[in-house]
Amino acid sequence: MGSAKIIDPEESSYIELTPNQTDKTGAIYLNKKVDIRHGFVSKFSFVVKNPGADGFAFVIHDSEKGSQDIGLGGSELGFGGISRWLIFFIFSTFF
Predict the structure, then answer these.
(1) Cβ(35)–Cβ(60) under 8 Å?
(2) Overall domain count for the chain
């Protein structure tokens, strides 16, 4: 969604959330809604290459827009403006 894309789709090697350009926002979503009331596990790894600013966020939300909701970019880290977020972790690359 947004600027996000799979790099090397033959291998599904990795997902690029945004290119190294200004004013870009990208998002990826799980294909189904997860009931987190009884706990959950999420595992992922990431690499930041050529960081500009500002970073990214891992967000669990229950927005009415579901997987069609994409947050604001820049200092909002891709989750500003998403309604009904429950949990978020931010990874800032602004230094």
Answers:
(1) no
(2) 1
71: buried, middle or exposed (CB in 10 Å: 19+, 13-18, 0-12)? buried
- For residue 86, with 0-12 CB atoms within 10 Å meaning exposed, 13-18 middle and 19 or more buried, which class applies? exposed
pLDDT tens for each residue of 47-73: 887 776 688 888 888 877 777 777 777
The answer to whether residue 11 sits within a structural domain is: no
| Sign of the dihedral through C-alpha 9, 11, 16, 17 | positive
Q: Which domain holds residue 67?
A: 28-95
Give pTM, 2 decimals.
0.68
Measuring CA to CA, which residue among 57, 50, 61, 67 is closest to residue 84? 61
3-state secondary structure of 66: helix
Instruction: Note whether residue 49 is domain-resident.
Output: yes
What is the DSSP code (8-state) at residue 67?
A: G
Residue 23 covered by a domain:
no
Rounded to whole angstroms, the Cα distance separating 16 from 66 reads 21
